[in-house]
């Protein structure tokens, strides 16, 4: 959904909008008996609408009503509760039962903007919340525009429902790949790579005054890039598009396509393709190298150093002549990229609310 234009919104004092803030009866942990079909138990957490579990009702602890917005004094997060609930220590609720569920969800999101002003050890108690202010959309009379909130949240829920359905379809489309007819290859086989042992540099001795070269270490995030360093006179960096492979350490087998020129640390080799491999083929191969490395080699015990140019092999799909099936690899990764983009788009929609 498009970003909301809040330029015409107005500030309201929370306590004037919602004077009825309640501290419900407390169900202490020692009284909790979990029960699958029981009543919801709300505690001070930022997850799952504040619900820890479902519990067995207790005779002397009265449930709070559905249709209210809860928050915790510490670790405060505002959640709309659509069912009656029991609650733990320092849980409160704003009585919003006269508003629709959609309006309450909208209000909970607006109230959440207050939380960032209060550190964990400084509780957001009702007396403080009543004096806080929140921004809300307004109608022609300058009053909260409840209709706008209702309609907007329904649009969000509709989009979320579509997103969940799309994610479900993506999950259901996954199929286990049959590798029974695949063949094993060495990195140095024909049509694969020249293996270069890297620049073997010490990051601590590098300078960063005018950084223009990536420095690739034994890391498993950001393509293995740990920093950006100055170019060293007489030492040409490797070209973008080559691949790096960590031979040992905690992230043994981490294999990445490098997006820019780079140097390497010790125990990081460079795989230079023997032909103009596509990005997707490189991605496929890097995944297979990583899988093989993590299955059959062990950091600090049996690392890749002594295997990489001798007996290290990995599986690839092949054509009828037992040569690597480059078209299959390329199309497979293109499909995976398309699926990943859809997953990201759907998660972005889910994060709206």
Automatic annotation (TrEMBL):
Query: From the Swiss-Prot or TrEMBL record, what is one GO molecular function term?
Result: DNA binding
Cite the entry's keywords alphabetically. DNA-binding, Restriction system
The biological processes this protein is annotated with in GO are: DNA restriction-modification system
What protein name is recorded for this chain?
Type I restriction modification DNA specificity domain-containing protein
Q: What are the boundaries of the signal sequence?
A: none
Residues covered by the Type I restriction modification DNA specificity domain: 182-345
Q: Does the keyword DNA-binding apply?
A: yes
Its ancestry begins with: Bacteria, Bacillati, Bacillota, Clostridia, Lachnospirales
Tree of life domain = Bacteria
**Cross-referenced Pfam families:** Methylase_S
Q: Which InterPro entries match?
A: Restrct_endonuc_typeI_TRD, Restrct_endonuc_typeI_TRD_sf
**Of which family is this protein a member?**
Belongs to the type-I restriction system S methylase family.
């Amino acid at each position: 959904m498009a970003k909301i234009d809040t330029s015409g919104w107005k500030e309201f004092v929370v306590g004037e909008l919602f004077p009825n803030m309640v501290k419900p009866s407390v169900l202490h942990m020692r009284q909790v008996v979990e029960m699958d079909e029981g009543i919801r138990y709300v505690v001070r957490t930022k997850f799952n609408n504040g619900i820890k579990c479902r519990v067995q009702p207790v005779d002397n602890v009265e449930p709070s009503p559905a249709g209210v917005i809860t928050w915790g004094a510490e670790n405060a997060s505002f959640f709309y509760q659509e069912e009656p609930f029991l609650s733990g220590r320092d849980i409160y609720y704003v009585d919003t039962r006269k508003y629709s569920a959609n309006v309450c969800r909208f209000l909970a999101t607006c109230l959440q903007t207050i939380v960032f002003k209060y550190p964990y050890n400084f509780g957001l108690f009702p007396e403080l919340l009543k004096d806080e202010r929140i921004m809300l959309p307004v109608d022609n009379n300058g009053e909260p525009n409840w209709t706008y909130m209702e309609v907007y949240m329904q649009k969000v829920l509709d989009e979320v429902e579509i997103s969940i359905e799309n994610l479900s379809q993506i999950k259901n489309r996954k199929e286990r790949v049959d590798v029974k007819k695949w063949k094993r290859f060495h990195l140095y086989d024909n049509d694969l790579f020249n293996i270069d042992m890297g620049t073997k540099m010490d990051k601590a001795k590098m300078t960063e005054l005018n950084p223009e070269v990536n420095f690739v270490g034994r890391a498993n995030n950001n393509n293995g890039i740990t920093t950006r360093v100055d170019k060293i006179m007489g030492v040409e960096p490797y070209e973008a598009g080559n691949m790096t492979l960590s031979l040992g350490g905690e992230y043994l087998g981490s294999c990445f396509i490098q997006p820019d020129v780079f140097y390497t640390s010790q125990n990081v080799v460079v795989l230079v393709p023997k032909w103009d491999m596509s990005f997707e083929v490189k991605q496929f191969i890097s995944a297979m190298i990583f899988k093989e490395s993590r299955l059959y080699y062990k950091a600090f015990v049996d690392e890749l150093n002594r295997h990489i140019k001798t007996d290290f092999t990995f599986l690839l799909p092949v054509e009828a002549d037992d040569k690597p099936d480059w078209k299959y690899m390329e199309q497979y990764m293109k499909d995976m990229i398309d699926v990943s983009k859809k997953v990201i788009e759907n998660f972005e929609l889910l994060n709206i609310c």
